[in-house]
Amino acid sequence: MAKKPGQTQSGTSIQHVKQQNQQASAGQAGQQQYGAEFASETDAQQVKARNAKSAQNKQQASAGQAAQQQQQYGAEFASETDAQQVKARNAKSAQNKQQQ
């Protein structure tokens, strides 16, 4: 098979390959530029600090909700329990045990 000018021995167009290589390297340069641009606009320390503060706020909120629920339960339990009545029943129960 005879080699044509501007082609490889297998018949590939040399000019076409060069164009593809140029386009590929232009695309890589664009990606590198985007990465550098993104990195320059992002303050990693600031992001870490905000994430830590957010986590701390979530923990405090969870603890506050748990405390509030316990207080609510305590108030609810206290409002349904007559302490004098409980003492009287305990005294009567103790007296019944002594008589037996």
Features of this protein?
Small, acid-soluble spore protein gamma-type, sporulation, Spore_gamma, 100 residues, repeat, mainly alpha, rod-shaped, 3 helices
Structural Rg: 40 Å
How would you classify the helix and strand content by structural class? Answer: mainly alpha
Largest sheet: none
Tertiary shape: rod-shaped
Helix share, percent:
over 70%
* Beta-strand percent range: under 5%
Number of helices: 3
Family: Belongs to the gamma-type SASP family.
Biased composition (Low complexity): 19-36, 52-75
Protein name: Small, acid-soluble spore protein gamma-type
Region (Disordered): 1-100
Task: Describe the protein's topology.
Elements: H1 14-41, H2 44-80, H3 83-99
Structure commentary:
This protein has helices at 14-41, 44-80, 83-99. The chain has 100 residues and is an all-alpha fold. The protein is rod-shaped and about 120 Å long. It is built from three helices and no strands. InterPro entries: Spore_gamma. This is Small, acid-soluble spore protein gamma-type.
Describe the structure in brief.
Residues 19-36, 52-75 have a biased composition (Low complexity). With 100 residues, the protein is an all-alpha fold. It is 82% helix and 0% strand.
